[in-house]
Model the fold of this input.
Amino acid sequence: MASNAFGNLFRITTWGESHGPAIGVVIDGCPAGLKISIDEIAKDLFQRRPGNTPYTSPRKESDVPKILSGLFEGVTTGAPIMILIQNEDADSSKYAMLQNQLRPGHANFTYLAKYGIFDHRGGGRASARETAARVAAGAVAKALLREHGIALYAYIKQIGHIRAKSINLNEIKQNPLFCPDHDASLEMMQLLDEIKKEGDSIGGIVELTSSSLPIGLGDPIYEKLEANLAKAMLSLPASKGIEFGDGFFSATLRGSEHNDLFDTDEQGNATLQSNHAGGTLGGISSGQPLLLRVAFKPPSSIAKPQPTLNIHKEKSILTLPEGSRHDPCVAIRAVPVVEAMAALVLADAVLMNSSTKITSEKSSLFN
Amino acid sequence: MASNAFGNLFRITTWGESHGPAIGVVIDGCPAGLKISIDEIAKDLFQRRPGNTPYTSPRKESDVPKILSGLFEGVTTGAPIMILIQNEDADSSKYAMLQNQLRPGHANFTYLAKYGIFDHRGGGRASARETAARVAAGAVAKALLREHGIALYAYIKQIGHIRAKSINLNEIKQNPLFCPDHDASLEMMQLLDEIKKEGDSIGGIVELTSSSLPIGLGDPIYEKLEANLAKAMLSLPASKGIEFGDGFFSATLRGSEHNDLFDTDEQGNATLQSNHAGGTLGGISSGQPLLLRVAFKPPSSIAKPQPTLNIHKEKSILTLPEGSRHDPCVAIRAVPVVEAMAALVLADAVLMNSSTKITSEKSSLFN
Amino acid sequence: MASNAFGNLFRITTWGESHGPAIGVVIDGCPAGLKISIDEIAKDLFQRRPGNTPYTSPRKESDVPKILSGLFEGVTTGAPIMILIQNEDADSSKYAMLQNQLRPGHANFTYLAKYGIFDHRGGGRASARETAARVAAGAVAKALLREHGIALYAYIKQIGHIRAKSINLNEIKQNPLFCPDHDASLEMMQLLDEIKKEGDSIGGIVELTSSSLPIGLGDPIYEKLEANLAKAMLSLPASKGIEFGDGFFSATLRGSEHNDLFDTDEQGNATLQSNHAGGTLGGISSGQPLLLRVAFKPPSSIAKPQPTLNIHKEKSILTLPEGSRHDPCVAIRAVPVVEAMAALVLADAVLMNSSTKITSEKSSLFN
Amino acid sequence: MASNAFGNLFRITTWGESHGPAIGVVIDGCPAGLKISIDEIAKDLFQRRPGNTPYTSPRKESDVPKILSGLFEGVTTGAPIMILIQNEDADSSKYAMLQNQLRPGHANFTYLAKYGIFDHRGGGRASARETAARVAAGAVAKALLREHGIALYAYIKQIGHIRAKSINLNEIKQNPLFCPDHDASLEMMQLLDEIKKEGDSIGGIVELTSSSLPIGLGDPIYEKLEANLAKAMLSLPASKGIEFGDGFFSATLRGSEHNDLFDTDEQGNATLQSNHAGGTLGGISSGQPLLLRVAFKPPSSIAKPQPTLNIHKEKSILTLPEGSRHDPCVAIRAVPVVEAMAALVLADAVLMNSSTKITSEKSSLFN
Done:
């Protein structure tokens, strides 16, 4: 399978099942000399962990990361960094009754068909719990990006039909839904309350932007920045789409409307006046902020009973056990994960970029 | 850079510039024993080539593929397959005047910044001409997929605001816009005529579906089918987004609306009753047809004069030379390329799947 | 760096420093359905661990492996398998005095130059301790190979000038030096006693053979079986060479002496009468047993004082601290590691081979 | 299969059969801004081509390389470089009679068993002709290495039992056997004359050394410089072993004999006084020249009749057709190929090294 790794030079491999003893990640390729604080990793994990608000799964995980290798006196040595997170609140008993049921919208059907075996406890490897390992690795990637002046901002753009209109970056971290528009978030919470009452779930959209990227990240043809970001985001559980800049809306635009025109900035460097493209040209960062949106489907696990089949292909009714712990809207907890995945792609692009040309002469485009 | 290759086991590497002597592709990993007809490759290239209709670039390329290796008496031997396509109508003279201009929405800015050098003739490597090599490789991938009973169908779903309503697969190949809705295509052509008259361009959306996929293609976590398809499609010039099944619309749905329920089919096998997910569960094909859409921005090269900078950062006006050959809507010619990229991803998934488990026992889910 | 992973489809990533809390390995790509026993892994680790005999380092490690993921009820699920081994007897105090010394023949010089930082405690990542993780992964690979009827046998071929003459496979596991020639091993132990008395160390050669391999493992050109085995073995600490079959001696042979001639075996299948080549033809297994030898240099850490420089480039004398724990001959403990690395290469080749051709028809060469 | 590519960041993919219309290579990842002269590539190809001396195969190939992409006005652009070499003297008629014979020591047996199909004409993909593509790519790699002050020198060290005693680098290029010891080469030629008269072939050893390498090339654990060089060399047709520095002889040495001691050089930098290790420590270049040797078996194609089987498993006698073109000692023509492969490994290591650490501060070890 060999499908649990992501990245070229900044490469992560994640491991661990939802209800196993622990999950974790090995980061291979992080440059030496980078200061890493365990607190930063813990802080990012805290954002993602369930049970923070009434709007996420009540599973309780303290999610304390342990760094088992790769650091010497708080600094990376170039050796692989292994981060382990214990599973604490893995209550498999509730899953016993699901063992023989096909769960609509859930991977147990395809895993069973593909592998002939499935660790049904808590969704096993297919559980969103795996994304905690991505967030831990993303925190390291973000530390590397900070050295290059890059900051990332993910937030809830939409839940159901309710869309954030204003983007206040300061609001994000204090908003229980990571929503940059306080008023919209109030409406969203009202919707989520209804959804929960109905025993149902709802979809959502996460948006990500950044500080202005250095020009030149990403590689032509198959390693375009968008290509790798798209792979990163569509590898997330429940994600169903991605778009950059004007995205699907650009299908309705004319070239004269969509083209970002060139100008010089205050330092006299060539720059772009607008950002319809979302931060890239030809797959390479153009000096504008990154701008992308990821669509998440409604979580498949809902309290409402659903008709289904058991693994002997007999009709049955799926009713999740009392007290099952599921998210009404997975997009909320996906916010720090989207940020982490973007960080991983950019960290890789930064490292890839260091071997691009033999001279370090500046182009005439820049001072 | 090493960014000109795509795929794991069925791996392609493309080479060649728009205005060099030739372009081509090496396919590494195609299994032995597959019959390949040069005519099939030629037929697919014909679909993509410019100049077929008034709605695509008037560049004239006969695009005759030559297979230089990997076949013995018409059958693959397991050796790399090299397909070369001569460039015939590469008229660089028209590009001379563009040499020192930044072209809005075009990669020459980022290539220059990244590499310090740019082959400006016809867009060099950043030209859509590179996609001819993908189509040639895709034809080989499609031959492999046929052995596994998989057929793919790409078509124009939308141009500007005009959307195909009916999907008539028989219409596609005979429709000048690859549109499966004849009536919608008439409106689209009218729009394209206007766009051309204005010296402008327009965006569009390509949709792809397939025959029912075998269950089990795609690998968990980072090699999900959607992840690799997303990478494939976002590696295409001018693509700005991708979505699967209900896609971005699923953000507005409830779980009870979006979940595809299980049932048994006529053969008594477990199957799904609907396809909101677009053909996968947990990143693995579920037995439903694939369903995805790719958004393409309007082409950046337009006849209308545009304010810009030259490479010395002086303000100037970009006017494309008389007789410049550009597409009013790149989505049209992207149709066979989207199909080729999907074929490459699926061929890889088929090969990856052969090493998944040690037994070949059937699951109880299937007869 | 991203250099801590090995293999294509059966892929391992190791992590951990000699004197960190633990070391371990993630195996990504092991097929589902394979029974894995923790005892088997523990048994292989026991072979490699120091302190088993007077002829290896006295460091005491119980080396109990813990499997943290990838197994469900003792069977692989296709998910990554994480095996963790605690470091117990990591006594860093002895290394404090070495911190500022360049150690002749040791990697601390090149690591410091390359990374600007070095975890000097016990050799950090450059320590042979990393090979315990390889052995754990190799035990899983051997379980997979067993399903394909492949068994491997590594043993000491030579220490100093003393060479094993007879190859008695039954002797290996009970011999304190893993030597298949009991008499030669007595001489070797005498030599090792002398070496230790002198405060010196000595080189050696490990040989590996196997049951008859299935025909067809390994891929042409750059993924030849020998190429990957050579990479595997030269990635081992202290290894300085590898040869296959007649190896360097074949430089002195004529084609008529070296060519292995064809014949039919008792089942009437085409086979080879001899094995000068060491088990492959054109990089692909020929149905003969694998035969290779790996040369190991004498360990660089010796009790004898050695002139050197400190990290301020001042001349000094390196004297290892009293009670330093080093191997007089690293080849001995390398025996199970060589076997593990061969298992990893072959497991990968077995998986790679499953996607080679589209038909499963037998060649006329075999019944 | 996907086995026709080599390298990570400086990555080549070769294609083409011995008796197809052409062979070639795509280089993906060569940095932009490098001047490449077609004459240099042609010069290296001339060294490798057959028919230069009475001691190599009489096949006549002009081996004129054509660069079809990746250069703009003689300078690399970062785009893939495609080099094509026409096959001119591919006389397949002579191979018709071999079509149904198993050739002792030859890959047609394993290819047939693995793929069920074999392009028997001239050995197809298994032919040493593939190495011409490696030499072309190696010439580009050498141009990149020159920018980093690295020069490589390969030469014949041994043919049969005759060994070069003196190493005169100036002798190599003018010696018909690429032998650095003029007197030894006279003896070798006498031996080759005898071998040819007998209708037999003979093995040999190629040695490679270099200018002092920059410190820090190569990556720990699985991407050690020796590991990748070993893979590179054992991927060569007919190679049976590799050793570094003292190599297999180091198995007989003591640590006090083998350890290279540190000293300061004339510039006051830390350096090594000897080079038993062959240029690396812990897999990373130590500032010494590289030193390695590759053993080549005697070519399997000999004029002498040999008993064998046909593909129907009937006993037969293999007699090569009159005028068959084979090398009496493949090691001779392997000399430029060994140099090319070393160049490819080092070019990759140079690029990999650029993303190793975040600071560029010098270690205290160097001024």
Observations:
- Chain D is about 25% helix and 20% strand.
- The mean pLDDT of chain D is 92.
- The longest helix of chain D spans residues 330-352.
